[in-house]
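Hi support team,

I'm filing this because I wasn't sure whether my run with 1,3-dihydroxyacetonephosphate finished correctly. The job status page said complete, but I'd like someone to confirm that the output block is well-formed before I use it downstream. Pasting the exact inputs I used:
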Amino acid sequence: MNTAAMEATALELVAPGKGILAADESGPTIEQRFKGVGIASTGDTRRAYREMLFTTPGLWAFISGVILYDETIRQKSTDGASMIEVLGRQGLIPGIKVDRGAKAMAGFPGEKITEGLDGLRERLAEYAQLGARFTKWRAVLTPGPQRPTRTNLQANAHALARFAALSQEAGLVPVVEPEVLMDGDHSIAQHGAATETMLQLVFRELAEQGVRLEAVLLKVNMILPGTTCPEQASVTDVVQATERCLWHTVPPAVPGIVFLSGGQTDVRSTEHLDALNRLEHKPWELSFSFGRALQAPALRAWADGSVAAGQAALLHRARCNSAARFGQYTAGM
Ligand code: 13P
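And here is everything the job wrote out:
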């Protein structure tokens, strides 16, 4: 484990004005996204789509790193280069999703536990050898009347810390992702309470398992009301609830918090990120690791038949989120 190198990578990933492109959709997820725009999901279409994203001219100015899926890290681009080489040409740091998905948790109806610890040490060694420099593991927490249960949160927090410790052992920066979903009718207060408890447990487990916080990034949801909650929230409500939750739980040794978009619209995600960055006191870099909020317009434009239009759409969203990192996003953009 080269601690100094991992700490440098973590800082590079949250460099001012830059964020992470999450392009690590699993097979079923990318199939669903493609279906939405009338594209069949095959090895070839997935490669073509992701190559379009990664070769966007000028992307390096706004994006620091890209999270890949196992299939993608092994694919070759049109000119025969590996996808890692394609990213390297733009100075983008390659990362890899290493969990094996959130599965139904036995005895806890409606709740999920993320699998993938078995054999993880060997898989991490291979990813490091292929050129990955950071990793991601996502826990999925489902708010509901009696949920998430403490047992479910604890099981997921424990697995996240196991993943983080193994990643650092392999010299890879772990992006620790507990996501409390925004689906459902829960209030913003319930979302905040569930996220706060989860983050308390996550940081306790990280400490127990000896994970070096300076070489970790936290990927987390913003605090939002459920999508079907009758009482929706203003940007100010979201910023206050999110700030409060993070202040209560995330140690300042953590260099950066990279938000997921979680199903918010692309513009809304950017507005929230922008408002968060206008806060006066922030012990961590507040950045993004968006999937849908960066890709949705690019996917539509690409599906309409043009690589250039897809790249222009991605670059536009990346530029808006880069401005939001400085609290300088305007609706006119
Ligand atoms: P979204 O921004 O679409 O939520 O995706 C981020 C991600 O990587 C979820 O694991």
